[in-house]
Amino acid sequence: MTHRPSAESAVEALPTADFYDYESLLSGSERRKLQELREFLAAEIAPYAEEWWNKAEFPSQLLPKLAALELSTPAQRGYSHLFAGLVIAEITRVDTSIATFFLVHHDLFVEALYKFGSDDQRSRLLEDASNLRTTGAFALTEPGHGSDVAGGMETRARRISSPSGAADGGGDCWVLNGAKRWIGNGTFCDYMLVWARDEADGTVRGFIVDASLPGVTRSRIENKIALRTVQNADIVFEDVRVREADRFATVDGFEDTNELLRGSRIMVAWQAVGQQLAAFDVARQYAVERRQFGRPLAKFQLIQQQLVSMLGNTVASMGMMVRIAQLQDRGADDMAQVALAKSYTSARMRETVAMGRSLLGGNGIVTDYRMAKIFADAEAIYTYEGSYEINTLIVGRAVTGVSAIV
Question: Residue 250 burial by CB count (10 A; 0-12/13-18/19+): exposed, middle or buried?
Answer without folding.
Answer: exposed
